[in-house]
Amino acid sequence: MSDNTIYDVVIIGGGIAGLTAALHLSKNNYNVCLIEKNTYPNHKVCGEYVSNEVLEYLAYLEIYPFKCGATTITQFELSTKKGKLLSARLPLGGFGISRYALDNLLFQKAKDNITTVFDTVATINATTEEGIAMLQNGMTIKGKIMVGAHGKRSIIDKSLQRNFILRKSHWLGIKAHYEYDFPENKVALHTFDGGYCGLSKTETGAVNACYLVRYQSFKKIGNIDCFQKEVLSANPHLKTFFTNAKPIFKEPKVISQISFEEKQPVDHHVFMIGDSAGLIHPLCGNGIAMAIHSAKLFVDTYLEHRKNGSLDFIELEETYTKKWNTTFQKRLIAGRRIQRLFLSSTFTENLLTIGKIFPFLIPQIIKKTHGNPISI
Ligand SMILES: Cc1cc2nc3c(=O)[nH]c(=O)nc-3n(C[C@H](O)[C@H](O)[C@H](O)COP(=O)(O)OP(=O)(O)OC[C@H]3O[C@@H](n4cnc5c(N)ncnc54)[C@H](O)[C@@H]3O)c2cc1C
C-alpha cells in the first residue's frame, strides 16, 4: 500500500525536533507528513529542564509551556559524590516540564495542519530529486525533502549505515517521577560513581529524577533499585531523595546505547535535526533547546532557498550543513569536555572549591554549552 501524495517535506520522528519543524512548515503552508512510531502523550527518558533560549520562538509557534504549569527555574545546584554542594544562578534560566506534556503540547498544535502517520519507518531512500520512507507495515511515503528527526538512535540509522551506529555506546539513561518536596525554581545535578542524576520539578508538581550512567558501572549491580540504594545513595543528597521520595511510575523508564559521537547534519540526502544531527551531553541541559533550534535552522534555510521558486538541493544541503556546524559545533565540543571532566571526582571537588571562591565562573561554564535566545 502507498500514499500517492508527494509531500513537500516528510519528517521522520515526532519528538521535539520533528514536531517543531512540522509546526513551523505548516505555518508557512507547506504540505507536511510526519511519521511517528508512538502515540501521544508518552513519557521519555529526559531531565525535562528546558533552557529559556527557546521561549520567544515557541511563542511564535503559539506554544506556551507556562500555561500548562511549567515551573520557572533560576537556580542550579551541583554536588560531588561525597555531597559537597555548590549553588549558582542560571545565566538565562529555564523551565521544568515533562516530555509527556511538552511533546503533546506541540503535537496538539500541529496535528490539524499536517498529515500524521503512526508507524515505524524501516528505511529511507533519498536522492536530490525525491525521497521515499518505507514503513514497517509495507506502506511507502514520498516527499521532495526528507527530514530525519528520529532522535538519538533508530533503525533508520542502521539502514543508512551511519558511522556512529557501528560502534557500541556505553551509556544508559534512567528516569522516573516522584512525589517529593523540592523547590520549584531549582535544577540539581548530583554526581555519583559512573554518572550523574538531575532533579527538577515538572508541571504536575512531580519531581523528575533522571540519571545517566556508564553501563559498566550499572552492570556490577544490574538492578535499578539496588543501584540507587548502593551507588547513587553514596551521595548524601541522593540518599535523602531516594529514601524519602515516593515513586509515581510503576517502573522507571530506561534507554541504553546513548551515543554522543559526531554525526552529519545531512546524511544520504536526509536533513537531520535534533539528536539525529548530534546529541549534546545531558548534563548541559540543552538538548531540547538544540532540537528546537535545529528545527528552526532547517526550516529557515529551506524557506530561504524556496524563495526563488525552484530549489537547488545541493546548495540547500551545503548551506544547512554549514549553518548547523556554526551554530552547534562549539557547544557540542564544550559539552563533551565538561562531561569528561565531570566524571572525575578530583575535578568536581576542585570545581566546587574554585566555584565557591569565584562564583561567577560557574555561570560562565554553563554559558559555554548554551546558546543565546533564539531570534525569530
Ligand atoms: C538521560 C538524558 C537526560 C536528558 N536531559 C535533558 C534535559 O534535562 N534538558 C534538555 O534540554 N535535554 C535533555 N536531554 C536531551 C534531550 O532529551 C534530547 O536532546 C531531545 O529529546 C531531542 O529531541 P529529538 O526530537 O531530536 O528526539 P526525540 O525526542 O527522541 O524524538 C525522536 C522521535 O522519533 C521517533 N522515532 C524514532 N525512530 C523512528 C522510526 N524509525 N520511525 C518513526 N518514528 C521514529 C521516536 O519515537 C521519537 O518520538 C537528555 C537526554 C538524555 C539521554
Automatic annotation (TrEMBL):
Organism: Patiriisocius hiemis
PANTHER family: CONDITIONED MEDIUM FACTOR RECEPTOR 1, GERANYLGERANYL DIPHOSPHATE REDUCTASE
Residue ranges annotated for the FAD dependent oxidoreductase domain, each copy included: 8-41
Enzyme Commission number(s) of this protein: 1.-.-.-
Short name of any one Pfam family annotated for the protein: DAO
GO molecular function: oxidoreductase activity
Protein name, entry field: NAD(P)/FAD-dependent oxidoreductase
Keywords, alphabetical: Oxidoreductase
InterPro entries on file: FAD-dep_OxRdtase, FAD/NAD-bd_sf, Geranylgeranyl_reductase
Phylogenetic lineage: Bacteria, Pseudomonadati, Bacteroidota, Flavobacteriia, Flavobacteriales
